Amino acid sequence: MAGLELLSDQGYRLDGRKASELRKVQARMSVFAQADGSAYLEQGNTKALAVVYGPHEVSASQSDTHLTSGEVHL
């Protein structure tokens, strides 16, 4: 079975980059003013956004030193 050709005969990828070239990377911090922390990262068609709200005080009934909770939205 033939594999997918990732490089041209001249050594270029389909998007015109050489095999050793990376896609452009963009990173920004504090992108959400309402959050306690936030960051944005982009490389090619991949984009990631992280937003943190907290920490918040936890009541004794909610406290469990073995558990941590959080949400990740992609």
Question: How would you explain this protein's 3D organization?
Answer:
The chain has 74 residues and is mostly beta strands. The chain has a domain at 21-56. Helices cover 0% and strands 26% of the residues. It has strands at residues 25-29, 37-43, 46-52.
Overview in brief:
The protein is mainly β and 74 residues long.
What attributes characterize this protein structure?
74 residues; mainly beta; 3 strands; 0% helix; 26% strand; elongated
| Beta-strand residue fraction | 25-35%
How would you classify the helix and strand content by structural class?
mainly beta
Biggest sheet statistics: 3 strands, antiparallel
Contiguous uncertain segments of 5+ residues: none
**Helix and strand element order:** EEE
According to DSSP, the number of beta strands is 3
* Count of runs of 4 or more consecutive helical residues: 0
The average pLDDT is 83
Helix content: under 10%
Shape: elongated
Radius of gyration: 21 Å
The first-to-last residue Cα distance is: 35 Å
Strand order of the largest sheet: 1-2-3
InterPro entries: ExoRNase_PH_dom1, RNase_PH
Pfam families: RNase_PH
GO cellular component, one term: cytoplasmic exosome (RNase complex)
Organism: Cyprinus carpio
